[in-house]
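Protein of interest.
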Amino acid sequence: MKARLALLICLWAMASGVQAIPDAARSHADSWRAQGQGEMRWFGLKLYDAELWVSSLNFDPTKVFALKLTYARNFEGNKLASASIDEMQRQGRLEPAQAARWLKALERVFPDVKEGQHITGVFLPGKGAAFYLDGKPTGEIADVELARRFFDIWLDPRTREPSLRAGLLGSKS
């Protein structure tokens, strides 16, 4: 009976589009749960699907969490890094030297992506962040402030996309 129930749950999850935690993030926490998801569009063009995974009961920015972006188009890694810096600047000023350092760090961990590929970023409290392309490590950034500001692009109330933030956090507004 338990095996049948487990099979039914698995089939339901696959049929409903529920994703499993990216393998890349599993080693960073004992348990994971999907907090929410959303879609990013720009002038009507779909850019990516986003999923927020948490290691606690609810999203807590001081605990380990993972953000998975599954791309709907091809993007160059240096363009992803540059756009990230632009968004961090929009949310709060960065000193030019700091922006240049952070840009180099992001360019180091962001590869070019093709449609259907995903980058997963894992926030590591007190350490920084780890990044993965389709489950394979692309690098780590040992800078907690950079990691926090990077994930704030999606999770801070000042985000450019409040409806995406609401979806990620699992709220209606």
Q: What stands out?
A: The first strand starts at residue 33 and ends at 42.
